[in-house]
Amino acid sequence: MRIRVNADRPDPRKLEPAVERLRRGSVIIYPTDTGYAFGCAMSSRKGIATLRKLKGIHEKHEKPLTMLVSELRDLGRYGYMSTTAFRVVRRLLPGPYTMVLNASEHVPRVMKNRAHEVGVRYPNYEVCRLLVEGLEMPLLTGSVTPAEDDPDLEDPDIYLERYARQVDAVVDTGPLWPEPSTVLRFTTDDQIEVLREGQGPLPG
Predict the structure, then answer these.
(1) CB 185 within 8 A of CB 141
(2) How far is CA 152 from CA 37, 91, 106, 142, 167, in A?
(3) pLDDT digits (tens, 9 = 90+) for 134-161
(4) Burial (Cβ within 10 Å: 0-12, 13-18, ≥19) of residue 94
(5) Smallest Cα–Cα separation from 166: which of 68, 77, 46?
């Protein structure tokens, strides 16, 4: 199913079919500030399994899965941060960053990596915010184009055909150039480790 949406002024009503499919445990493809991504509800074990297969990330992988939230305070609900770390995060978000944090008890076990970490994103992108708010829970997310690949124009027409059996809907805002997020890991001793330098400027 194709769901056409205006990226600059998305209509929440047009996103309702995508939200309904997420509530049923399905995987969708949707646009973000860093390109198109796979998404499923955090509560859907079937959706998480499908997304893991699409991304090639098994449960004991060192790379954590990432959730997308719609409020800054959700980072503290799903990951542990010191006061120092939160000050840094507050300066950077919302924006094109993935924060890797020690996962809290609110994160399903099937989402954590072998180090019990989780990635959290809070992008400055209205379509993402509306999807999460409509779903009323974080949206598990993973880019369609791997960050290590040479960037190519992402075309919803291709995704509708390529992933017809794995996803139930494609939210289409037109072709996008993927620009990966900057990935930062916050350690227990208040150190910030840069795991990937993307479009988000590094904290000074």
Answers:
(1) no
(2) 14, 31, 36, 17, 21
(3) 999 999 999 998 766 777 889 999 999 9
(4) middle
(5) 46
**How confident is residue 131, by pLDDT bands cut at 50, 70 and 90?**
very high
Amino acid in position 185 = R
Q: Express the helix, strand and coil content of the chain in percent, nearest 5 each.
A: 30, 25, 45
CA distance 142 to 14: 22
CA-CA distance, 154 to 162, in Å (whole number)?
A: 12
Structure tokens that stand for 26 in this block: 């399905």
97 near 194, Cβ under 8 Å?
no
| CB-based contacts of 101-107 (< 8 A; 24+ apart in sequence) | 101/75, 101/186, 102/188, 103/64, 103/78, 103/79, 104/77, 104/78, 104/79, 104/80, 106/77, 106/78, 107/67, 107/78, 107/79
Domains and CATH numbers, the chain: 2-196 (3.90.870.10)
- As to burial, measured by CB atoms within 10 angstroms (0-12 exposed, 13-18 middle, 19+ buried), residue 161 is exposed
One-letter amino acid at 186 equals F
Nearest to 147 by CA among 191, 93, 95, 98: 98
The two structure tokens encoding residue 23: 């509530």
CA distance 69 to 195: 20
Quick one: tokens of 116? 């019990």
Check residues 60 and 55 and name the one with the higher pLDDT. Answer: 55
